[in-house]
């Protein structure tokens, strides 16, 4: 049976490339801000590019944080991508300004302490043991990153599966926590590796 996925349109993110990547792995995909569609779909993808504060402003305009919270509370899968991962945390700190996030996970998203920013390009990850998202992908698989900020410690529940990467300092590259999953990298820009990861997520819906 074909799985239905909504890519949440709140004015941020590579909506069409996310849509195409999900269609490639067999999902029926709609790009919309409609709450009914976002709540009823098998899976919800929350994309995001740019600044944490701008993404949260756009998300709040469509009640996106409540949609995410309602889905998670009902055990319905959500996947955050790039800044769509960052806004799941309690807060983001950019240029000395602190912005409240969705608060699904405690902790802050802060600037990477690295000589070259942004972290842009292909990088390996240290996938969590038994990770459904990274099933079938070997340890030297590379994913595509573009970001200057990241969650650099985990303050959430001990049951979460944590995948790390390093750009001068370690940071969270992915989190799998019950129905809520997220990647700091862009699966839709990560070629066959990204398609495999999205396929694994779709399989679990």
Task: Describe this structure as you would to a colleague.
The protein has helices at residues 15-24, 35-40, 52-61, 64-73, 83-86, 191-203, and strands at 4-8, 28-32, 43-46, 78-81, 89-94, 97-100, 105-111, 119-124, 142-147, 149-151, 161-167, 169-177, 180-183. β5 (89-94) and β6 form a beta hairpin. It is 26% helix and 34% strand. By secondary structure, it is α/β, with parallel strands linked by helices. The termini are close together. A seven-stranded mixed β-sheet has the order 2-1-3-4-13-12-11, sandwiched between helices. The model has no long low-confidence stretch (mean pLDDT 97). The protein is globular.
Q: Strand content of the residues, in percent?
A: 25-35%
Q: For the residues shown, what is the average pLDDT?
A: 97
Structural class: alpha/beta
End-to-end distance: 11 Å
Give the fraction of residues assigned to helices: 25-40%
Number of E-type strands: 13
Can you count the helices? 6
The gyration radius over C-alpha positions equals: 15 Å
Main sheet?
7 strands, mixed
Q: What's the order of the H and E elements?
A: EHEHEHHEHEEEEEEEEEH
Quaternary: single chain
Shape: globular
Unreliable stretches: none
Question: What is the topology, as strand order, of the major beta sheet?
Answer: 2-1-3-4-13-12-11
């Amino acid at each position: 049976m074909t799985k239905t996925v909504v890519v949440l349109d709140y004015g941020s993110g590579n909506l069409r490339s996310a849509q195409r990547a999900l269609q490639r792995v067999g999902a029926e995909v709609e790009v919309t801000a409609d709450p009914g569609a976002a709540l009823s779909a098998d899976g919800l993808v929350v994309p995001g590019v740019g600044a944490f504060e701008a993404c949260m402003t756009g998300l709040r305009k469509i009640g996106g944080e409540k949609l995410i919270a309602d889905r998670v509370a009902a055990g319905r899968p959500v996947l955050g991508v790039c800044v769509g991962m960052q806004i799941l945390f309690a807060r983001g700190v950019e240029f000395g300004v602190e912005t409240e996030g969705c608060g699904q996970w405690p902790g802050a998203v802060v600037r990477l302490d690295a000589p070259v920013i942004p972290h842009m390009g292909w990088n390996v990850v240290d996938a969590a043991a038994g990770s459904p998202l990274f099933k079938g992908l070997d340890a030297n698989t590379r994913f595509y990153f573009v970001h200057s900020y990241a969650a650099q410690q985990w303050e959430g529940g001990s049951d979460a599966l944590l995948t790390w990467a390093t750009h001068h300092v370690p940071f969270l590259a992915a989190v799998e926590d019950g129905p809520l999953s997220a990647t700091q990298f862009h699966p839709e820009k990560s070629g066959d590796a990204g398609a495999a990861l999205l396929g694994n997520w779709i399989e679990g819906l």
